[in-house]
Amino acid sequence: MTTENAKNNSMETNEQHPVTTILDSNTKTLMFGLMVLVGIILIVGLVGIFFLPPERELLMGEVAVTEYRVANKVPGRIDKIYVHEGDHVRAGDTLAHINSPEVDAKMEQARAARSAATAQSNKAEAGARQQQIAAAYEMWQKALVGVDIAKKSYDRVKQLYEKKVVSAQKFDEVDAQYRAAVATANAAKTQYDLALEGAQGEDKQAAKALVAQASGAVQEVQSYINARYLLAPCDGEVAEIYPKVTELVGTGSPVMSILDNTDMWFTFSVREDMLKDLAVGTEVQINIPALGEQTYTARVTYMRAMASYATWRATKINGQYDVKSFDLKLVPVEPIEGARAGMTAIIKDR
Q1: pLDDT per position as a tens digit, 302-341
Q2: Class for the domain spanning 94-229
Q3: What is the value of pTM for the model shown?
Q4: Residue ranges per domain, the chain?
Q5: Does domain 60-67+260-347 fall into CATH 1.20.1260.10?
Q6: Cα radius of gyration (the chain)
């Protein structure tokens, strides 16, 4: 039995040698294949590094146009809106009407103040009435009669006083009455002259100034009344309407926005390490994908560093440095038909 077992083990060992040989051959083939594959990858990578140019980063921006906010000067309620979003308007077109009863009330007050000031000015210019002038004249004439009577009495008493017929006291009384009559006549003459002359020049100027002030108030309120009709500031397109009819709006509140599509430019946010070929005055080719493959010439007109929160910062793990972003404005050399605000723009000649 021992001899047979030894023979059997010897036979099994002899049978396993071919299998091991086959496995070793497959492993070597697989390893060789892997090495060939790695070599091909390395060769392709080296070719790409040394012979293919690196792909430049794509600079993307957007189309921008001038936007005007149409706001009201007086508070009130939206009474009527004459346009819709997307409508094309021309400068001076009526866009909306605001109802403001407070402005109407102020106009009534201003007109009443102007009427009162005008009446006062007319009175100053016209002077005293004819009846007042006649009354002043009669008072003057009456005073003159009194002077004449007092003068006669004074002369008689004076002669008697000189003859020692009357006392000094009586003479003094008559003298005082005569002087009083003369003073009364002078005062009456002054009143008559004032009636003829009318108001003083200063009073007339003051009355005219009040009229001018009241007229200015009327003009001011009239400007507010005119401002209740909102007009288009330019030719353009109604982009957005904010309030609805019957809603209240305050002073300076925007009612709608108008886009001036003739004043168009491109905006880009570019890292400073990519600004080498984008100096102010440089012309570049820009493509707007929404308009097809055609490119348009645009000129860099503005460059400004963006705020810190908009700055792109590289990590310093690999020894890189912080890089700021710049806001660029490019203006098309010729008008671009069909371009609209918000469309994507791509710089192609980089």
Answers
A1: 999 887 654 555 545 555 566 788 999 999 999 999 899 9
A2: mainly alpha
A3: 0.54
A4: 60-67+260-347, 94-229
A5: no
A6: 53
